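Protein data sheet
==================
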Amino acid sequence: MSTEPRINDRIRVPEVRLVGPNGEQVGIVSIQDALRLAQEQDLDLVEVAATARPPVVKVMDYGKYKYESALKAREARKNQAHTVIKEMKLRPKIDPHDYETKKGHVVRFLKAGDKVKITIMFRGREQSRPELGRRLLSKLAEDVAELGFVEFAPKQDGRNMIMVLGPHKKKTEAMAEARAAKEQRKADASGASGEVEHAEHIEPGELTESAEPVESVESIEAVEPAEQAEAVVGASAQATEEQS
């Protein structure tokens, strides 16, 4: 069954309760008068409550109404939080380096507001030692206790042991924080580029004025030729005396 509202000449009733374009109550009028009022304002007559007696119709721009409704629905879907369960698989005798890597993934999932299903896989004789799996799951739960909690306690399921961790932070809060952090990074990058651009824009005169003054050549005392000759003769006489 179609949910498309009845518009204009598709409304088949003698009288309607009319609502104006700004939400004002016009009252009960004939369908012909309602259509005429809508045409005079170059708008549509839309049935908004078909089960009422008489039906309620409103004068509006139906194309604009559909566009705004689509925008609101898209924004609602954008902010809608979907519960996601991530899965991480480990071996009971996992290497310490691999454990840190796996734990990093669990931390990232919990920060994003997602649940994490931890699966310990037993092989061969490892199935006879389930305490290894419980010990590993307990250690992981303690390591990420600040971000999540044990929502489903460890339980043996065939060759596997399963535990579910739930985040302390809701999905909507995590999404809001992620968007805020993204906007902050953009603002910081924009501010940094503005500072670099300001530093590169230096007038030539500013460089000249900031330079240290150079000592003028005129400040060096001039030596007369006669004084130079006397100095040379005096030096020669002193050298002769020293040799003798």
